[in-house]
């Protein structure tokens, strides 16, 4: 009986090691057919790479910029959600983009998913500390309309859409995403003369939004 008990314990440990723990960041990268050229859409050479097997995390960076990040989240039904981010830039601005994948519990295939399936609806205004930014845009809106926006009939929201974008920062540990705004300075550089003090308002009066992963609903939720 004692030998039988030892066999059961050994079998259970073997199952945990070879079964539930068999999914790894290596397999994750393989299933999503990861190639750096698909994520680093900028004229930038990577300077550092992190492959954290323990925490299921992969990152390629250059100086201060995270060129790409990949991580996965285990769901209650033993499937996995994979989230990856990439980086692109042009002569004036840089931005980030994201991909979502569903890995069934069989862990032998990857299904591309729409971002809307995982993230709550976010508006740029969700990141504004106060109405200081909209007031600042209102100050320069007539000049921006006269020199940049189509037909000279742009709104404050049009300007917000021109200068801001989202950056989803993946966790190396835990289940919390940080979403920040990136800022494109094309308008003050090429269109309208905005003082440094006024332009600083567009970054200083924003805050990040934190999203926590729910493994039952397979969605990120506002905290």
Description:
With 223 residues, the chain is of the alpha+beta class. The protein has one domain (23-222). It has six helices and eleven strands. It has helices at 2-18, 25-31, 132-147, 156-163, 186-191, 196-204, and strands at 40-41, 48-52, 57-62, 65-74, 80-89, 94-103, 111-113, 164-169, 176-183, 209-214, 219-222. The strands form two sheets. Strands 1, 2, 3, 4, 5, 6 and 7 form a seven-stranded mixed sheet that branches. The chain is elongated and about 60 Å long.
- What's the helical proportion of residues? 25-40%
How far apart lie the N and C ends?
51 Å
Along the chain, the helix and strand elements come as: HHEEEEEEEHHEEHHEE
The total count of helices amounts to 6
Shape: elongated
**Major beta sheet summary:** 7 strands, mixed
Q: What is this entry, summarized?
A:
Helices cover 28% and strands 31% of the residues. The protein has 223 residues and is an alpha+beta fold. The protein has one domain.
């Amino acid at each position: 009986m004692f030998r039988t008990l030892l066999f059961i314990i050994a079998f259970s440990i073997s199952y945990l090691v070879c079964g539930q723990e068999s999914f790894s960041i290596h397999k994750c990268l393989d299933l999503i057919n990861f190639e750096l050229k698909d994520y680093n859409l900028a004229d930038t050479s990577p300077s550092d790479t992190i492959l954290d097997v323990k925490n299921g995390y992969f990152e390629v960076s250059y100086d201060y910029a995270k060129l790409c990040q990949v991580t996965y989240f285990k769901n209650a039904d033993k499937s996995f959600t994979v989230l990856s981010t990439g980086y692109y830039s042009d002569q004036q601005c840089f931005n980030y983009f994201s991909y979502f994948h569903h890995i069934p519990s069989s862990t032998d295939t990857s299904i591309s998913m729409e971002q809307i399936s995982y993230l709550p609806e976010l508006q740029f205004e969700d990141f504004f500390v106060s109405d200081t930014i909209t007031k600042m845009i209102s100050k320069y809106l007539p000049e921006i309309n006269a020199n940049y926006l189509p037909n000279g009939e742009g709104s404050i929201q049009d300007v917000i859409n021109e200068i801001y974008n989202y950056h989803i920062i993946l966790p190396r540990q835990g289940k919390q995403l940080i979403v920040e705004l990136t800022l494109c300075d094309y308008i003050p550089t090429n269109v309208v003369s905005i003082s440094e003090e006024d332009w600083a308002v567009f970054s200083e009066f924003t805050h990040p939004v934190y999203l926590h992963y729910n493994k039952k609903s397979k969605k990120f939720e506002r905290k």
